[in-house]
Write a structure and sequence with these properties.
eight-stranded mixed sheet; 50% helix; nucleotide-binding; cytoplasm
């Protein structure tokens, strides 16, 4: 059985394959040109490969790590043909993801603790509200009772957008007026969740990054006030990143991990970009589990990130 094949629904796998099509087409077109007319992996091929990985938004540090691993294999095997390069790249990237992601697959299931509170952070425009809506849909589909908290009170549009998702998924939302104290909304949401015996709480937060100190203070206050209702919340801080922004996603991850304790990641909009390599780099550099990836517009297209299926799809040759 192929190392990279695991139990994964056919429909989800097809969506993942399609969602990564732009990334892998770009990657393999560049790789084919780099190895054209060459029979062995030499310094020139490795230099070209380094450039390809960096231009695919894998990131400099992660690229150097991958190249070093391939150099070690070339040295050990004495001769390495370019025909084997795909397989070796696949194995080394899968190994890298396993080291940074661990062996536990993310799921929509949680501990029996109720309510399980997820605070969702990320800059405006990354697909944060849409991600919350899709998560709410999938948690509800999994039989969970879900409540949304509109704690991004900085923008009226954010509250309205979350209300639209609450209506679409048919779940309750706790909100106040624009300009209200975000911590007050979070407090009310958790309190309401306890009264309603809810399983999952999804708290939206403001996505301002122009002043990291203010962001840090605001997120700290939201946590502190929620803990007056129930201790040790949030149970999870999910950072949403826009995969189509490439290196900018790295910068956002740096800013938010400095501002608050991020415990999981969702990388969105991978279907509309050739920058899918960003998932590999972010996973490796931040050592924070990538829990979800967005590979389409549909409700089901926010997928649980399966590292082996991701690698399998990324290295599946595009049919001409």
């Amino acid at each position: 059985m192929n190392l990279f094949k695991k139990i994964f629904s056919k429909e989800k796998k097809e969506t993942l394959d399609k969602g990564l099509e732009k990334s892998k087409t770009s990657f393999f077109n560049k790789l084919s040109k780099a190895v054209a007319g060459k029979s062995k992996v030499d310094d020139e091929v490795l230099d070209d490969l380094e450039e390809i990985l960096i231009s695919s938004d894998v990131g400099v540090a992660t690229t150097i790590k991958i190249i070093k691993r391939i150099e070690e294999r070339v040295a050990k095997d004495k001769y390495l043909g370019t025909a084997e390069l795909d397989t070796i790249l696949r194995e080394e990237i899968a190994s890298l993801l396993s080291e940074s992601q661990g062996d536990d697959a993310a799921t929509f299931q949680h501990s029996d603790k109720k309510p399980y509170v997820i605070m969702v952070v990320g800059v405006n425009g990354v697909g944060k509200t849409t991600t919350i809506g899709k998560l709410a849909y999938q948690y509800k589909k999994a039989g969970k009772k879900v409540i949304l908290g509109a704690a991004d009170t900085f923008r009226a549009a954010a509250i309205d957008q979350l209300q639209i998702w609450a209506d679409r998924v048919d779940i309750p939302i706790v909100k106040q007026q624009m300009g209200s104290d975000p911590a007050s909304v979070a407090f009310d949401t958790v309190q309401s969740a306890i009264k309603q015996d809810a399983d999952v709480v999804l708290i939206d937060t403001a996505g301002r990054l122009h002043n990291k100190v203010n962001l840090m203070n605001e997120l700290s206050k939201v946590k502190r006030v929620m803990q007056k209702v129930t201790p040790n919340v949030p149970d999870e801080v999910l950072l949403v990143l826009d995969g189509s922004t490439g290196q900018n996603a790295f910068e956002q991850a740096k800013q938010f991990t400095a501002a608050t304790e991020v415990t999981s990641l969702a990388v969105t909009k991978l279907d509309g970009t050739a920058k899918g390599g960003v998932v590999i780099g972010i996973s490796d550099q931040f050592k924070i589990p990538v829990k979800f990836i967005g590979v389409g517009e549909g409700m089901e297209d926010l997928q649980i990130f399966d590292k082996m299926e991701f690698v399998d799809s990324f290295f599946k040759q595009v049919k001409a």
